[in-house]
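hey all, quick one before standup. I had two proteins in the batch that finished overnight and I want to keep them in one place so we stop losing track of which output belongs to which input. First protein below, input sequence then structure tokens straight from the run.
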Amino acid sequence: MKLPFSLLDLAPIGEGTSIADALDSSRQLAVQAEKSGYHRIWLAEHHGMHGVASSATAVVLGHIAAATKTIRIGSGGVMLPNHSPLVIAEQFGTLATLFPGRVDLGLGRAPGTDMATANALRRNLQSDVDSYPADIRELQHYLGTPKDGQRIVAVPGANTHIPLWLLGSSLYSAQLAGKFGLPYSFASHFAPDQLFDAISLYRSMFEASEQSEKPYIMAGVMAVVADTDEEARYLFTSVQQQFMNMRQGANRPFAKPVDDLSQICTNADQAMLSHILRYALVGSPQTVSDKLHKFIDATEVDELIVSMPIHDIKARLKSAEMFAKLM
């Protein structure tokens, strides 16, 4: 399969490990991704989560960019309503200056946290949804070429022309990405319901822009690749527990895998997991290859972005390497 493939990393803080361990693991994963031929590695903005260390997304991107040479780095994504567009332009403009030609800026509009933490972020919870498109335009303005007499200039940021992506799991984000003529990444790795409708809507509504002449869509999948199906299913129980914890409102570190998930998984949990994680690629290389072909054939995406939700960093690195060989 000659399709660009990329990695999504949440810098997971594993049960029994530290935040420092999580950030070091992200560095190791980025190095492995570059070695294995991944096109880009993105980090996601989340706040107040005991299992995620990438809240200061731009800072962590600098950490992994310094450990690599060629792989593209970016946000998957920055939750723009949490921030002033000028601040994001300065942060990513700094990254683009330090690591020219390697930086992507993926944007989302969810808070990426609970409402109490969102308030602590000074997020404008009263803002209308219409402010998100305006914020995107403002951000593009700061990253572009300053006009004569322009009073507010992002320094760094201006003239970097960092490529923007819109991220989402709804038809709203698909429509907006098409209207703005931007590449679009759909979060089918945890929100699969509207995948095909979003792809169709985005492609049908796409209008060429200065950044993109034609539509470009990336879809997310989770992947756990191991020597055997049994081992992969065992490793996958970590993320299954994570979704069960989220359903119960439990904020915990990323769980160690368990031998028998059924001992802690109710029928309702199992139904939820089967639904949300329907596109997860879990198994031996042959098993994952078969599922992978079917997903790519069905979606006809331009690029695949893969999350590797594995507790043990050695197993995560091995999974990333094995997946790359399938591509």
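OK second protein, same deal, sequence then tokens:
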Amino acid sequence: MYWFATAAETENKANNESIQDQLMNYFQDPSRWMNMLGVIVKIVVIFIAAKIVIKISKRMIQLMLEDREKKHFKLDARRSNTIGKLVGNVITYTINFIAILLILSQLNFDLMPLLAGAGVLGLAIGFGAQNLVRDVITGFFIIFEDQFAVGDIIQTGQFKGTVEEIGLRITKIKNWTGEIHYIPNGSITEVTNFSINNSISVVDVSVAYEVDVDTAIEVIKATAMQVYENNDNMVKEPDVLGVQSLGASDVVIRVLAECKPYTHFAVARQMNAEMKKALDAKGIEIPYPRLVTYHRQEETETA
């Protein structure tokens, strides 16, 4: 029995010495320490690079939003801040995720199962919420490409009105009669924006053939200039083109007036009213349909 105990103790002592030797060899290996130092340096570089990229990306987003605010219509400040923070968070999460993958690869982790799982999860979410993803992506492009802004008058499909709100998923358009249309951004494929460039007001004034054309044109010019001086929506002096057409009973004189975006209808209404007053004051007849009735009375012959 004593011999067996002594043999076991000797074997355990030898095993302990072997483990200690392995540990000593492990920690005393210069190449291993160099590899560990290289991995640590790479992890630090990846971490610092990720922070720098995030900071530069957020600064670029801020500059883009400031540039959008200098355009024809300023976006709502709360909306700009919300979108800026949202995009900044998305970029931060994406870059941090990439940095974590790079750090794990430096630590010799197998990334294939993780990437495969993320790919399957992304496909499941994509197939389950295709319309939602499409609406969100389209909303981003609408905002950053400045296709239209809050307060613009636009037409998309059969809907036309003033933009009340631009969301990441839906856009609210208020019709001129008061209805609010909620349109998913993904269904906005074509947009006509009436609020970017100046509009042209076209006014056709009809006078009778008996009226002297030159006199009528002078009266129309003077009246158009008077409207221009009193209407802030007109950005340039109106242009009287002259005789536009010769109708069956009238001579049509055309006037063009450049106006602020989507104010040409109001300008045309005011112009028509002032033209009617001026022509009446000068005794210039505006032709209109007349119906003349002849009564014929037959004489009865007496026998």
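Flagging for whoever picks this up: Strands lie at 153-156, 159-166, 170-174, 180-184, 192-193, 199-207, 239-246, 251-259. Residues 31-109 form one domain.
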